[in-house]
């Protein structure tokens, strides 16, 4: 590709958190450039945000519908190639659908939609359009997460027996949504976040990580979710027993009221010969806990030839140079951009390029949320994930 991939953005304006993360991640490898956006539901604030990003005034739109129409009318050599959707959850579906109908590929923040019906419709829209669709379950972008997936997938540790995945945060330990905190305000509002708070926001990350690392789908679950902070409309804590394919047992815990926790995402997988342990707060380390032998500590590094090829493909630096959250996020955008470039040129993308979450992963997440909520309200012990 002799040019950069052109990105438009919906959302991510003043006061937003994740929009800036998407922009930094997308621009990190020099493959993508931001060319336009509808950054706020307020047209004036959207244009102000665009000016701060040094975009031309005529590419800063008042709303996403105007943006899709105007960009689609531009010559092929000028219009955006894809749309990054970084709005609150309730807008993911209409924005992504509008982009697909206008002929644009989509990179969407998670969860895919705010309800499972819209998720199914979006899967159909992607299939009908044939357009590329990415979903930013960004923790799968960490190199040592990919190494864990490789070791388990190659059978080196034997048959998987148990999975323990947890994602504790403490930022909602107090009712800060009542004090005007913007992120807390919409993430605890059912009209904007959807039917679930904690499990929709970070529980789906834990679910996606468990399925990605093990290569196994969750078949049934038994859940108990709660709104611990009095008066909060959505859940802020949850505990889930899992049954995955092949009879593998699991435990998933997600919480946003675990006081003192930052972003403690962690996964442990226990197989016949050894266990694996990865912690997001030390992301460049993967511990292999061999049965009856000393533990093995694996570290990230593009120069470490004992690591898998895909693991090294997702490392940017030699060993000893830390890479973190933004680099993992950027790995998804890099793979998405490389795949999109191949499509635009009529070439088949390499297998490594295709290693990013897609619309089906988003539907899996919505099925997980639905099953968790049904299970928590039910007196039945086990609830299947339904199609």
Question: Helices and strands in order, then pairings?
Answer:
Blueprint: E1 5-11, H1 18-27, E2 32-38, H2 43-52, H3 64-73, E3 82-86, H4 92-101, E4 105-108, H5 116-129, E5 133-135, H6 143-153, E6 160-168, H7 182-187, H8 190-193, H9 198-214, E7 218-226, E8 237-244, E9 249-255, E10 266-271, E11 274-279, E12 285-290, E13 296-299, H10 309-313, H11 325-344, H12 359-377, E14 383-384
Parallel strand pairs: 1-2, 1-3, 3-4, 4-5, 6-9
Antiparallel strand pairs: 6-10, 7-8, 7-14, 8-9, 10-11, 11-12, 12-13
Helix pairs in contact: 1-11, 4-5, 5-12, 6-9, 9-12
Please explain how this structure is put together.
The chain is an alpha/beta fold and 387 residues long. The chain is built from twelve helices and 14 strands. The model has no long low-confidence stretch (mean pLDDT 96).
Rough shape?
A: globular
Number of helices: 12
Largest sheet: 9 strands, mixed
What is the strand arrangement across the widest sheet? Answer: 13-12-11-10-6-9-8-7-14
The sequence of SSEs as H and E is: EHEHHEHEHEHEHHHEEEEEEEHHHE
Number of strand elements = 14
- What separation lies between the terminal Cα atoms? 39 Å
The overall pLDDT average reads 96
